[in-house]
Amino acid sequence: MHLSRPSFALLFTLLYGLVLAFLMRHHELWFDETEPWLLALYSDSYSELLYNKGFEGHPNLWYSLLFVITRFTRELWTLQAAQFSFAIGFVYVFLRYAPFHWFIRLLFCFGYYGLFEYGVISRLYALELFTTFLLCTLYPTRFRNWYWYIFLLGVNAQTHLFGLFFSGVLGLLLFAEATGLFKTTSDVLKPSTRDVAIGFAVWALCCAFSFWSITYYLKIGTPFIDPYMIQQAGTRVWQAFIPIPEFTFHFWNTSLLRTAFEIPLSMLGWYCLVILFSAEAAFNLPPSPVLCSILLFWFQIRILPPAPRSLFHLHLSPHLD
pTM of the full predicted structure? Predict the structure, then answer.
């Protein structure tokens, strides 16, 4: 069996599906898994669903899919069936098309994130990964498959906050290439001016709608610039790569180090990454990676509301995003 052929991806996707089905059977659903399901189930109309999910801090796509499912059944196992489908999808696409060594591909799919965080847990992460990996797969032929690529950008923006960021960045890159701002693409491959205009309008509308669906619940009068949140955002880069939680029972989203230490460590970490992957970028635009990262994490902290204290007391789930 050649490790770059579809048979490799099919075989290990089947194995992944068997392991995932076994683990899902023994997984007790957490609160943040069942909450979107209950919001969809007890919404009598789609407009009511959008109102009820106002404080979720996520785009509408996952909730819309659950709304459609709950019109036909009230069985909770169908929530896991939807999750299972998207998990199988992103694993197959990754195993089939990712340009990594076969062992690295297997490590990701059968590791903690691929198998548990994005597999067992019935959240919107698998849907986001599935559309993201499809975008990566289609990227080399983005100009030959122009409208399919635009469609995937729009769908990916509706999956998650990070999907919106990913689609936004890829969209800016795409139209910069298509309009000639970047000279790395042959003029033969570039789409027509009409196609660029239509594609840009669709992409911009999708990103704008995703942004609105995430943020429309924010209370008027709440300060958008909060120094405390900006400080917390400045620590997230360090915490993402080297998480050292407090050694307490409620360890989730905690850090052993003080903010005053983690902010400079986050900046140092970004500089190391930029120098590692692009020394030219490190010298030409030294502050941009740090500033963009702080803005991204600040935006995530700002729009995702904290869970009510009563949920912590119930101990329903240690996983809150």
Answer: 0.77
